[in-house]
Amino acid sequence: MSGAATIAAFALRESLRRRVFAVVGLLTIAFLALYGLGTWQLFDSVGEFEEPIEGIEARTVAGATILGLAMFATLFLGTILAVFLTLGAVRGDAERGLLQPVLVRPIHRRTVLAGRFAAAAGVCCLYVVIVFLAATAITWAFSDWWPDRTAGPALQLAAAVAVLAALSLAGSVLLSANANGIAVFMLFGAGLTAGLLGQIGEALGSRTLDRVADVVSWVLPFEALYQAALAAITADTVGFTRLAINLGPFGGAEAASPLLWPWVVAYLALVGLVATAAFGRRDL
Amino acid sequence: MATVLEAADLRKSYGPIQALKGVSVTVGEGELVGLLGPNGAGKSTLVKIACGLVRPTAGAATIAGVPAGSPEAHRSLGYLAELFRFPDWLTADELLGMHQRLAGSDGGSAERERLLDVVGLGEAMTRRVGTMSKGMQQRLGIAQAMVGSPRVLLLDEPTSALDPAGRRTVRRLLEHLRDRGVAVLLNSHLLSEVELVCDRVAIIARGELVAAGTPEELSRPSGIEIETANGTRVLDAAAREDTPRIVRELVDAGEQIYGVRVLRSSLEDAYLEAVGEQ
Questions:
Q1: Which of A4, A136, B92, B102 is deepest in the core (most CB within 10 A)?
Q2: CB of B86 within 8 Å of any CB in chain A?
Q3: Per-run averaged pLDDT (10 residues), chain A, 284 residues
Q4: pTM given for the model
Q5: Distance CA A24, CA A124 (A)
Q6: Nearest CA-CA distance, residue B265 and chain A, Å
Q7: In chain A, residues 59-98 whose CB comes closer than 8 Å to chain B
Q8: How many domains does chain A have?
Q9: From the CB of residue A29, how many other CB atoms can be counted at a distance below 10 Å?
Q10: Backbone angles phi, psi at A150, to 5 degrees
């Protein structure tokens, strides 16, 4: 087993033994149950609008809106998982004396980072994909509505939490666990705020707000990925239904630019390089 | 004796604080070198540089001829930190297993059992770290440092949490390792322990090497103690060579002599003198 695989397996086993997965699993079931209840109630009310009203398909608007909310919740839960799996991975573990015995083994420091990232990103990506697909299935069960795209948004949400896990891991090299957790959640909030600013900017026709939202979504690509995922679930929806959707929380959704995936890969590599360089220079 | 650990003119600054001001230390194959010094002297910094956990500001350290901190150097190294902790959810066996994988050791369960036996934890193989006393964890730390049979062991206060029996076990273990050719750099506050097991001692104070040598070299003659019928008297200024003359003079003077002892200062005296805390 390679050094990175040993570190990753160790991190996963720690989460298992500390019952992280059990707690997350139970709370996720509670979240999905709540989501199911909400979806059932929503479509119970929407049921009376069987026919399109002035060209607007109520089921599509309601389904896309509630699934969009579930996607936000999924991203948020995935972010919490990513942050808590990585926030003290380097400085926190070093301050507790856990890291030093590992680092004097014949492995590079970058191997430790790679192992920790693989474990955290693997768990978080799998988690958001499962929760997104479960929410989609619940929505379909109560509404007969299925999003226009499924695999794309699932992958985009997964990549978004991978980006957040990378940022949190890189932050753990420089910041204490508490400071790092706060910083990553603030970045998460900044990204979402920028998305809302973009939505407001579009409504007001403000190029400045649009520009700010654009720049932030490239600097913090988890936001661009989230917007792309939102856009993808109604990618083929047109007409008045599209307009109605845009009035809701989907106004900020932006279809993925062709450069988004290459940029996400480059961004992860860049964050990895910065983290490796900083870790390599760090006295422990 | 081949040198397996060499620290040459190591300097380390943390901002305005100079933790090391040009310290050179070597440890040869099968040699046990004690590192002594008051708190904040720079001992742990030196050990951490040798482990590659801290980068020197200047100077260099090598392990088995390769730069300290490189994976090649780590292949020859075992280390127990002063402030270490192991994950409390791991069992002793799992911890050693993980370190075997990281060290590339193919010793398997036989090596794990042997190491735990050696440190007196043979019965605690399946016990979780979190349920162990500090002393047991320290023993486990020593076992962990020996995974993969390293050529060099860097032990930073390895017996600070051990009871006298535990210290004796570790002392015997260190002697056994020395006999097998393992080089050991032992950082300890326990002067008696260092005096008992170390071949050489290096004393560091304020980031500088202030004394080095064998424990015998560092301790010096400090007079003669003579027990007579009139009581025991100490002649501070007398040297070992003066003993026959002094005894003869006392006998000629009609004194009855029951015992004569040549006094030497202890390592503690030498240490206190070297660090300027007499």
A1: B92
A2: yes
A3: 86 87 92 94 76 72 89 94 93 91 93 95 95 96 90 96 97 94 94 85 84 89 92 79 65 78 96 96 90
A4: 0.85
A5: 11
A6: 38
A7: 96-98
A8: 1
A9: 11
A10: -125, -50
